[in-house]
Specification:
single chain; TIM Barrel; alpha/beta
Length: 374
């Protein structure tokens, strides 16, 4: 196993945890936000820029890399680290989320999922064994089990059948996993049903994975309350000595609420997606840099941010780039947005040490939602 999670402190007033792991002789701290590099690249950013914003683990997408360039090419290149020139830890998802967005319910069988490629319409099938085989070849540091991603609106009967199938798939995937340098995480599902979340968590833990993820909270139009309830129903049944991962969540308030409930790592495409549309995180809420009020605003995105974009460029210049559709604009906003979320996690790690996370949350929420939040 390339790294092992160490629980360093539990916050006195919440379920928040301060943790760490060593990877390539470097210590990484949790809670942590992980930028998403779907196609072995965090959109518009070089690996050096990713490290400059303080990123640790980054993500790559099994489904997309399977389709292009293909897992065999990545393996020939020496694995994802050499292929994309990133020497930090990398996590690959199972491909399940993308596959289920392309499949019809009738195409989900015990064997796996049949669907059409979004690139050329070819009929493909992804199974638990195939997902693990692809991830073994990609040689990421953390691989994810292949799970069904049912909508949060699914009824209790369907959700129960779904999580039992996911458990069978998790066992099949674990049996064929054969990369000794790669950790394998299990995924807890169950929608907003307390009994199913508990069952899924307990049964997944019995399979003894290297870490555990909570899924099904970012693939439908569920409310924030449903998301938080899903955590409340799942986390108590996960082991304390292994990483807990909340998939696909990146709104600042959701990161805070997740940490309060005992989550260690998060990922989301939100910071780069917002950047491409001209939006930036600030402590006073999100702003739309395309708005006319920034045309002559020669101040940085944030006076308190230490990122490259804020140190060197103004809102007026970045607005000009975005309006002119220049790639540099999206790059600068991506640097800023990712740094904002990573800094948020750094701040939470500090307040966990002092047992003042709830006070920090109150201050953050009052300012973030009390601002303009465009």
């Amino acid at each position: 196993m390339k790294f092992k999670y160490n629980l360093e402190k539990k916050e006195a007033n919440t379920k928040a945890r301060l943790g760490s792991f060593i990877y390539n002789d470097k210590k990484y701290m949790t809670p942590m936000f992980m930028p998403v590099g779907t196609l072995a690249t965090v959109k518009t950013l070089a690996p050096e820029e990713i490290k400059d914003v303080g990123a640790g683990i980054i993500l790559a997408n099994t489904y997309h890399l399977w389709l292009r360039p293909g897992e065999d090419i990545v393996k020939e290149a020496g694995g994802l680290h050499k292929f994309m020139n990133y020497d930090g830890p990398i996590l690959t998802d199972s491909g399940g989320f993308q596959v289920f967005s392309l499949a019809n319910p009738k195409d989900i069988t015990e064997e796996g999922v049949t669907f059409k490629s979004h690139l050329n319409g070819d009929k493909l099938m992804l199974t638990p064994e195939k997902s693990i085989e692809i991830q073994n070849k990609l040689d990421s540091d953390i691989a994810m089990s292949f799970d069904e991603c049912p909508p949060a609106s699914a009824n209790h009967e369907y959700m129960e059948k779904s999580i039992k199938r996911t458990l069978r798939w998790a066992k099949r995937g674990k049996e064929v996993h054969n990369n000794p340098n790669q950790m394998l995480f299990g995924i807890v599902q169950g929608g907003a049903y307390p009994d199913l979340r508990k069952y899924s968590a307990q049964e997944t833990v019995k399979l003894d994975f290297d870490g555990y993820s909570i899924g099904g909270v970012a693939n439908d139009n569920e409310s924030k309350e449903d998301m938080y309830h899903a955590l409340d129903y799942s986390v108590p049944y996960l082991p304390e000595d292994k990483i807990r991962y909340l998939m696909g969540v990146g709104e600042p308030i959701d990161l805070i609420e997740g940490v309060i409930r005992g989550i260690d790592i998060f990922d989301c495409v939100l910071p780069t997606r917002l950047a491409r549309h001209g939006h930036a995180f600030t402590l006073d809420g999100k702003i739309n840099i395309k708005n006319a009020q920034y045309k002559r605003d020669f101040t940085p995105i944030s006076d308190t941010c230490d990122c490259y974009a804020c140190k060197h460029y103004t809102k007026a210049y970045i607005r000009h780039l975005i309006v002119a559709n220049e790639t540099l604009g999206a790059r600068l906003l991506s640097i800023h947005n990712i740094r904002f979320l990573i800094k948020l996690m750094e701040d939470m790690r500090e307040v966990i040490k002092n047992d003042t996370l709830l006070e920090y949350k109150d201050r953050f929420v009052a300012r973030y939602y009390g601002g303009h939040n465009e």
